[in-house]
Amino acid sequence: METKTFLSGIFLIISIGLPWWGCDEKKDKNINCLNGVILSWNPNTEPDLGGYKIYYGTKSRKYETPIDVGNSTVYTLSGLEKGIKYYFAVTAYDLSGNESGFSEERSKIIQLGGESNEKHN
Fold it and tell me: How many other C-beta atoms lie within 10 A of the C-beta of residue 37?
């Protein structure tokens, strides 16, 4: 498989907060649904863009199974464990299935109610 570099200038932004559908803290005692990130990145401009994949995990560059988000450049990832540092990266793929290298990695420690104790890395 050919490795493409068309994502080399990606700027991955991470916001910690409530998923767009919200949560009821009093109803959901384990409040996992509050612990999420909103990931966004600059769009790829190549005409054969097939979509994007989000990679994340609890160790730098050691990611779980990717999430294919199609052509969207914003994705809410919820249900993350509070107090744990997560690492995130994005790749793009073309219509032939060729995937770019990883974007610059970003990380966040997930805190209760979307608070973070560190700056966007």
Answer: 24
pLDDT, tens digit, for every residue of 95-109? 999 999 998 898 888
**Dist. CA 35–CA 18, nearest whole Å:** 7
The two structure tokens encoding residue 78? 């919820």
What is the side-by-side strand order in the sheet with 85-94?
67-70, 49-57, 85-94, 106-109
Q: Which residues pair with 67 in a beta bridge?
A: 54
Give the tokens for residue 86: 């997560």
Cβ neighbors of 84 (< 8 A, separation 6 or more) are 58, 109, 110
Provide the CA 30 distance to its chain's centre, in angstroms.
22
**Domains present along the chain, CATH in parentheses:** 12-114 (2.60.40.10)
Question: Is the pTM above the cut of 0.90?
Answer: no
